[in-house]
Write a structure and sequence with these properties.
With 61 residues, the protein is mainly α. The chain has a domain of 41 residues. It contains 3 helices and no strands. The termini are far apart. The model has no long low-confidence stretch (mean pLDDT 91).
């Protein structure tokens, strides 16, 4: 479902993301950025679980 939204966003962040993602429009930029965050959700959930059981030991120190 697509809905019409009015948002106040930091233009410099949109411009930087647009360059990094190689997108043509602001809408495409925001959609791609949201897709990236959603794709990382499983990784973030694992990080939260690891943190609860004691974290990760830095074996390279």
């Amino acid at each position: 479902m697509v809905r019409h939204k009015h948002l106040k966003l930091d233009q410099s962040k949109i411009d930087r993301a647009k360059r990094l993602l190689g997108t043509d429009t602001e809408r495409e930029t925001i959609e791609r950025a949201l897709d990236l965050v959603l794709a990382e959700a499983p990784i973030l959930q694992v990080h939260k679980r690891v943190k609860k059981v004691g974290g990760v030991e830095d074996v390279f120190r």
